[in-house]
């Protein structure tokens, strides 16, 4: 299997910005959010089960899943969140692991918001955490998702704490500065990490050949 760098961080930390910068360098990106959308796309068996459970209120006018509406329900009701996670997480996990196993890239950036929460670090050779102060996280996520502040706070509470997330990190990118100020610094950090990961991946593959 290819060398896997798990990229994670709390809601609003800037994971997409970071993964996009790696993509610009030609790195293969495997994004959990893409698989999360695929398994519940219009007409899928899992979406039908979600509609059956929650009703038509979680659909858009185009009969697709309204993720914001569903989020407002499940992150304010622990039992409903558990039901949904038990339904979709195994399907997402299976699809992602299959993709990782099929990859022939030198290394991949595997973007998983719940990498630690769902105990997926076992599939990673290295963990990269995007770190941000909680108050900045709350502000960014509320503005981006157009969600109620209470909902974002509930999502943050459902994720591992900042300290616990950092305890899993092999590498950390801090993303506390405003976008325009922080981006040039982050770009340089990503370039340095890309160089580092390329070397580590090549060494790993040589070790695999020897064994």
Automatic annotation (TrEMBL):
Top-level division of the source organism's lineage: Bacteria
Predominant subcellular localization, coarse grouping: cytoplasm
Statement: the UniProt record of this protein carries the keyword Cell membrane: no
Keyword terms of this UniProt record: ATP-binding, Coenzyme A biosynthesis, Cytoplasm, Kinase, Nucleotide-binding, Transferase
Top-rank EC class of the record's enzyme: transferase
Reactions that this protein is recorded to catalyse: 3'-dephospho-CoA + ATP = ADP + CoA + H(+)
Compartments (UniProt record): Cytoplasm
Cellular component GO terms held in the UniProt record: cytoplasm
EC number: 2.7.1.24
Annotated ATP binding sites: 12-17
PROSITE patterns with a match to the protein in the record: DPCK
Molecular function as annotated in GO: ATP binding; dephospho-CoA kinase activity
Stored InterPro entries: Depp_CoAkinase, P-loop_NTPase
GO biological process, alphabetically ordered: coenzyme A biosynthetic process
Pathway: Cofactor biosynthesis; coenzyme A biosynthesis; CoA from (R)-pantothenate: step 5/5
Family: Belongs to the CoaE family.
Protein task: Catalyzes the phosphorylation of the 3'-hydroxyl group of dephosphocoenzyme A to form coenzyme A.
Protein name, as recorded: Dephospho-CoA kinase
Organism: Mannheimia varigena USDA-ARS-USMARC-1296
């Amino acid at each position: 299997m290819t060398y896997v760098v798990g990229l994670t961080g709390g809601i609003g930390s800037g994971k997409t910005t970071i993964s996009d910068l790696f993509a610009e360098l030609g790195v293969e990106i495997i994004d959990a959010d893409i698989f999360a959308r695929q398994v519940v796309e219009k007409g899928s068996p899992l979406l039908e089960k979600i509609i059956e459970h929650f009703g038509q209120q979680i659909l858009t006018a185009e009969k697709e899943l309204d993720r914001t509406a569903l989020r407002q329900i499940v992150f304010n009701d622990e039992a409903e969140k558990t039901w949904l996670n038990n339904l979709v997480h195994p399907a997402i996990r299976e699809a992602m692991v299959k993709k990782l196993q099929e990859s022939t890239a030198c290394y991949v950036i595997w973007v998983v918001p719940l990498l630690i929460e769902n105990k997926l670090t076992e599939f990673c050779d290295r963990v990269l955490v995007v770190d941000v102060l909680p108050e900045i996280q709350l502000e960014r996520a509320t503005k981006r998702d157009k969600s109620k502040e209470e909902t974002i706070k509930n999502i943050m509470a459902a994720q591992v704490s900042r300290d616990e997330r950092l305890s899993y990190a092999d590498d950390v990118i801090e993303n506390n500065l405003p976008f325009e100020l922080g981006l040039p610094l982050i770009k340089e950090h990503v370039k340095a990490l890309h160089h580092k990961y390329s070397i580590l991946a090549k060494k790993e593959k040589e070790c695999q050949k020897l064994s």
